[in-house]
Amino acid sequence: MKKLAVITATLLLLPVLLTGCGSSVIKEEKEEETVNENLITVGFSQLGAESDWRNTNSVSMQDALSRENGFNLIYKNGQQKQANQITAVRMFIQQAVDYIVLAPATEEGWDSVLAEARDANIPVILVDRRVDVSDKGLYSCWVGSDFELESKKVTGWLKGFTDRRNISPENLHIVNIQGTIGSTAQIGRTRGLANAARENGWDLMAEVSGDFTENKGREVMAALLKGYDNINVVYCENDNMAIGAIDAIESAGRHVGPNILNGDIMVVSFDGVNEQSLEFCKEGKISCIAECNPLHGPRVKALIESLENGETPEKFNYVDERLFSSLGIVRSVEVDGVSYTVEEP
Ligand code: GZL
User: Fold this and answer.
1) 3-class DSSP state for residue 336?
2) Residue 293 and residue 54: Cα distance in Å, rounded?
3) Whose CA is closest to 234, among 178, 280, 181?
4) CB-side neighbour CA atoms (13 Å) of 17
5) pLDDT under 70 in the chain at which residues?
6) 269: Cβ below 6 Å to ligand 1?
7) What is the pLDDT of residue 37?
8) Degrees (nearest 5) of the Cα angle 90, 26, 313?
9) Which atom of ligand 1 is nearest to the CA of 145?
């Protein structure tokens, strides 16, 4: 792929201090006009900064696609709005970047702008969530997680827990605090729980979106506690919402933990990036976390280098992910014939 001498102006990015993963910050970009020669210019449309997972993902991408590694990265934060991401992709096309990397907020609505990138001969790499387009040729490849597998690990752990504690399936009264509706992570994690509840005879009482944020998770949990007096399992589709939900549960005078037959409310979650959530998991306040690996930067760098060498990388590239619990009750979970060890957080 041609390398471009590109004049780029990059906007000042507010540094976002991260908790967890060694407290890195999203690198500040100074307002500058620079001529970048012999670098691979990449336009990265990130969907937002809604969670610790997202910010860790952004840092991973900036660290991998650095000038030292031969890249000129133009980073745009979509603030959770697809319209902003479409604008960013069109700007990248006008700038004639070498590659476009897109972390789409939700799956629908990408056909037109990805066709514009194809018509401009700019390869598109998807990271994290997917797009639902009529022609998969509109993007070169994707790297991310199997979200339904993440859910099967958590629901498999929950099944193992109830079996070992002799808890009848009909005594599980579950609410699902969902991620951003229409995002691949939400679709997979919601489907996994709904299937497990149906197969196991669990009482799945409500599904409400917390949009992957702590504040919305707190707000939704408080409302659910007012609406239901028998909740004993809260399935949170990411850690930030779990932290908000735990705060709401404790503010309502209830105890968070695994002893659901003695009145506890159990919380299970996804990501394993936020330090507070890992602490809660060590304490048993979060009973189980399915890891969702945010470190896509090195994988995207390798995919670009492969494309630069004229190779055709795998279309779909999955990251490896673990399962955490400190309760020691369930040692491993089997999903589709594969055994996953339950690890200490
Ligand atoms: C999952 C990612 C989700 C995380 C959330 O790959 O799309 O979005 O689970 C993040 O924390 O907001």
Assistant:
1) coil
2) 10
3) 178
4) 0
5) 1-24, 27-37
6) no
7) 67
8) 55
9) 6
Fold agreement (6-139, 147-293+322-343): yes
Q: Please state, for a pLDDT cut of 70, what percent of the chain lies above it.
A: 90
* pTM across the whole model: 0.90
Q: What does the alpha-carbon distance between residue 61 and residue 52 come to, in Å, rounded to a whole number?
A: 14
Residue with the two structure tokens 């979650």: 269
Please work out whether the CB of residue 292 comes within 6 Å of at least one atom of ligand 1. Answer: yes
State whether the beta carbon of 212 lies less than 6 angstroms from ligand 1.
yes
Report pLDDT digits (tens) over 309-319: 999 999 999 99
Q: Is the CB of 130 under 6 A from ligand 1?
A: no
pLDDT tens digits, one per residue of 184-222: 999 999 999 999 999 999 999 999 999 999 999 999 999
Query: What is the structure's pLDDT at 32?
Result: 40
- Res 25: pLDDT: 72
Contact call for residues 4 and 96 (beta carbons, < 8 A): yes
The strand pairing partners of 17, in sequence order, are 25
The third-level CATH classification (topology) of the domain covering 6-139 is Rossmann fold (3.40.50)
pLDDT digits (tens, 9 = 90+) for 271-286: 999 999 999 999 999 9
CATH match of 147-293+322-343 with 3.40.50.2300: yes
Query: How many A from CA of 238 to the centre of ligand 1?
Result: 7
The residue type of 286 is I
Among 105, 16, 96, CA closest to 62: 16
> How many Å lie between the centroid of ligand 1 and the Cα of residue 128?
8
CA distance 325 to 287: 6
